[in-house]
What we know:
Blueprint: H1 10-20, H2 30-42, E1 46-49, E2 55-59, E3 71-76, E4 98-101, E5 104-107, H3 114-128, E6 137-142, H4 150-153, E7 164-167, E8 175-180, E9 182-191, E10 202-210, E11 215-216, H5 228-243, E12 246-253, E13 258-259, E14 263-270, H6 274-291, E15 300-306, H7 315-327, E16 331-335, E17 343-355, E18 358-367, H8 370-385, E19 390-393, H9 407-420, E20 425-429, H10 435-441, E21 446-449, E22 454-455, E23 463-465, H11 466-482
Parallel strand pairs: 3-6, 3-7, 7-21, 8-20
Antiparallel strand pairs: 1-2, 2-6, 4-5, 5-23, 9-18, 9-19, 10-14, 10-15, 11-13, 12-14, 12-17, 16-17, 17-18, 22-23
Helix pairs in contact: 1-3, 5-6, 5-7, 9-11
Amino acid sequence: MNDMLNFEPKRVFYYFNEICKIPRASKKEEKIIAWLLETGKSLGIDTKRDAAGNVLMTKSATPGKEKVTPVIFQSHVDMVCEKNNDTPFDFDHDAIQPYVDGEWLKAKGTTLGADDGIGMAMALAIMEAKDIEHGPIECLFTVDEETGLTGANELKPGFMKGKMLLNLDSEDEGEFFIGCAGGMDTVATLDMEFEDEIPENSVAYTIYVKNLQGGHSGDDINKGRGNAVKLLARILWNAYQDYDVRIADIKAGNLRNAIAREGYAIVTVPKEEAPALETYLKEMDKVYKKEFFITDPEVEVSFEKSKMPSQIMFELLQIDLINALFACPHGVQAISQDIPDFVETSTNLASVKIEDEKIIITTSQRSSVESKKKAVADRVAVVFYMIGADVVHGEGYPGWTPNPEAEAVKLLTTAYKNIFGKEPLVKAIHAGLECGLFSEKYPDLDMVSYGPTLRGVHSPDEKLLIPTVKMCWDLTVEFLRIL
């Protein structure tokens, strides 16, 4: 029997277990949408979807509670699909394989999808519950939060009726979030050009940078972790200068909202330089282990001899590419001037890959100051403009301005003190939340975000602290009671 089904609250973990069985990559949410519609129908709850694919369930108030302020519980249906290179897994068809490790719930070689599957499970358990008194409740399940905030962006005014929105997409139990950064993507593209021939008397290697922690490009950007794109670019820049290394292929990083965990480059090197290159790569393995001995102690630089590639990158293009990747900013760019220890502005050099004879470099920027978000995105763009790349900024999404006096915050804080006898932390978050977009469509909506403790989100190290799920459930029930 699945150990997860023994944990409390049983119905929350039941629904999360069911959700783990359903493929739900961003922009591929048809199966989870269909399941939600069928689940709502089976519960006898009014359930509908909009043109974007967002699903809304509506539950009437229990008798005598009809005039209580209507509440919306909101979560997103998609998950970040990341796996270890040595894990055979098809996110379009395979079920996530959760397992218990002490007090943590993890997945075998992939992201767990508790971001935000556990929020969905809590919402469904609320919809199902017969023993909770409450006013009118809606549960909103949005699509494509992870790669474009599409569901929130395309939400139409009037689709939902609630006056308070509780976003179930935060990752630290005991912390309530009342504001978030805005974000945008910046993507640079270069035409791939090849040399007429590979230099004679060359040998080929595949160089790997791997075993980095990676993580969420908002929540984890200030933790000093290594970025595989940056570390690989540094190696290639020096290897070209000193050993005349030439690039045939390069791939590092994956998703725009994840810090790059691993990458590789297939290169050629003159045969007489091969021993020196091997010595250099062994030395860089030691250098990176020393530089990241706290934040990424498992980082590894390795190499192996490879089959000679059929073609290599045009030399001037290679120079431009590795110069730009090495120079491109990554990480925290500014700390807030009014919120202690809060990251105000950051940028993530998310990935580089060669696809359909194009070199594609993906980056993402975040800031709680709109003008600084644009400024750092423009600075990233300039790096790639200087090498002749085609650069496109995404539309982006707005931040969410904190309101510590919001009624939802006060009530949730009171509920927390009632249950746990202490004050929660009320703060803003550098990650993006859909609340910024909700506030544009529903300007009078009173919002707060909370959730159980998650770590390693957006990476195969993602894990859920099991006891905090019941803590969040008890808090939610108490909130509904005092509302």
